[in-house]
Amino acid sequence: MKRPTIHDVAAAAGVSRGTVSRLLNGDKYVSPAARVAIERAISETGYVVNRAARSLVTQRTGSVVMVLSEPHEKLFEDPNYSTLIRVAIRMLAERDLSLVMMLAGDEGDRERVVRYVRGGHADGVLLVSTHAGDPLLDALRTGPPAVSCGPVIGRETVIPYAAADDRLGARQMTEYFVGLGRKRIAMITGPMDTPGGIQRLEGFADVLGRKATTRLIAHGDWTQASGERAMTELLERTPDIDAVFVASDLMAAGALAALRAAGRRVPDDVAVGGFDDSSVAVSTHPPLTTIRQPLAEMAQETLRLLLALIDGAGHVDPVVLPTELVIRESA
Amino acid sequence: MKRPTIHDVAAAAGVSRGTVSRLLNGDKYVSPAARVAIERAISETGYVVNRAARSLVTQRTGSVVMVLSEPHEKLFEDPNYSTLIRVAIRMLAERDLSLVMMLAGDEGDRERVVRYVRGGHADGVLLVSTHAGDPLLDALRTGPPAVSCGPVIGRETVIPYAAADDRLGARQMTEYFVGLGRKRIAMITGPMDTPGGIQRLEGFADVLGRKATTRLIAHGDWTQASGERAMTELLERTPDIDAVFVASDLMAAGALAALRAAGRRVPDDVAVGGFDDSSVAVSTHPPLTTIRQPLAEMAQETLRLLLALIDGAGHVDPVVLPTELVIRESA
DNA sequence: GACTTTTGTGTGAACGTGCACAGTAAAGCT
DNA sequence: AGCTTTACTGTGCACGTTCACACAAAAGTC
């Protein structure tokens, strides 16, 4: 009961291996008669090509590896990954490519990834939430094409990416607060070594200018707990805050808890704005006014870039997509 | 600049291919001298084995495929996947196996999965949230070993799994409500064609017996919106409810919104219990009392079963793990 | 009619590995 | 001393595919 090979199909169809191979790979020189005979033979035998054998000669693997750079504990706290994974599987499947997942949380992981990619086991690399200065970036300079979902900043090593316009989103939220007549607008940022951390603060500062003083800015690490801590800190430092822009919904959920604990009403006393429009935004009380990132398009564009590079495009330009203000009850 | 092969390593080390291959595959008959020479040659040349070539001769692929059976839209709403993916990548990596992801949302996807697996492209299959009666189950009866994270009920086709004791968890929560002195305890279940939907209701009924009437039971589909709908429905049908056990945290978040809209205080008027102990459980107001599933162990055990089967174990027994009550403020 | 081009087909070699087998030398046993 | 076992090494073949090439017949061109 061994699986049929291309030989078996050829024999069943009364042609040679070469002709079957040509049909399989879309070569134009296959006669109509041969075509139908082969197609019948394939479905009769249940033949499916052996990718290992194909890889051996084509030097392609038919797979793309997605590298998750988050430290292990917080992996997937961010629900954005789900969209990316889904879109990736789907778009790759159309090209008969499969998606393999790897972790790059610690040094050992990272070495494994480099070995894997350098060893020629992937036709492309999909980086996710890679930090600036990650040694992976240098290690992957040679080898198959790599792209990132979300920008990777820093160093001379530039890698193509598709991302939301974080800075624009931050401006949208801050301008909304200003339009609401809020006077003392604070911000809780993400880590300052991530693009989201930096650019969302830049957008905030774009609008407020000199009014964005350090007394009104606190830093979090994307976790809910850090949002709570940062909010508490801000309230101690500057009690008369009447609005706060939090750089992620999850941290905003933490900030809401801190505000509640301090007896402030939301949005009456303090308006709260999040970022991401993730699922937590609707499960908090009150539901969060936030900035939606076009997740699906980001994922699609990221894959489009990667596929273009795999197809031999020498160079592709990064893609930046607009964000959108989503008004709910927290502001 | 082509990649080094096992020949190159052998030449550099002054031995034959066979000896290098033996070292690589852990054969005991390699002299210490040869060992060091080969190891040096490997690191000097940067050699890494070509999996395609290896697959071709061993008839193994070195990869396990994870099949996500959720319809696309709600994929990953459940944060449990993240743990499973993480654990899977990790445990598979230790065995030098890689994880490839596939979707099985519609008919086309499912056919692709079957082709892939039947085509011998995976050494094992990891099913996730597969519904009863899924045609995949029959299609995968032949081929490499398959296991499921979470039980797959129905049919004669039994597949090994590791799961939390849903029924126990439901009993724990219901008993807790009873101990609190609550008299009219309602339940919002999951879909009744899923193990979680069925077994959590069974546990509820185990404790309440004849008191678990249909007037006190409403059905949801795991989404937050469905939890809100079901809660509204229950309040209309039976206004004097003083406790409600909701079969998932996400649905419980919806139920909280419905209770708030109806002016009921939680937990004073109505105690609310969730299930899963997912991340939403701490971002709701008030935070949810819920049932924790041992996610990490479930994932570990699932992988242990799969690896055992891949190693040739003819049969493995399903694993059922105990749940735990987590008391927060909603009850 | 002698050519080139187009369309279609078959064949041998190569991709890089593991495994069965053959072979050798040293050590252990009677 | 003769025989068996242990430790180690090298070689040929097979895995299933693609690709370059050779070849053949039909169709078009001068």
Please give the radius of gyration of chain A in angstroms.
25 Å
In N-to-C order, the SSE pattern of chain A is HHHHEHEHEHEEHEHEHEHEHEHEE
Compute the separation of the termini of chain A in Å.
66 Å
Helix content of chain A: 40-55%
Number of helices of chain A: 13
What are the defining features of this structure?
alpha/beta; 44% helix; 331 residues; four-stranded parallel sheet; six-stranded parallel sheet; 13 helices; homodimer; DNA-binding
Q: What topology emerges from the helices and strands here?
A:
The structure is a homodimer of 331-residue chains.
Chain A lengths: L5 H8 L3 H8 L7 H14 L5 H8 L4 E6 L11 H15 L3 E6 L3 H12 L5 E5 L6 H5 L6 E4 L11 E4 L1 H14 L5 E5 L5 H14 L8 E3 L4 H14 L5 E4 L2 H13 L9 E3 L6 H4 L6 E3 L2 H16 L8 E3 L2 E3 L5
Parallel strand pairs in A: 1-2, 1-3, 3-4, 4-5, 5-11, 6-7, 6-8, 8-9
Antiparallel strand pairs in A: 10-12
The structure holds a DNA duplex (30 and 30 nucleotides).
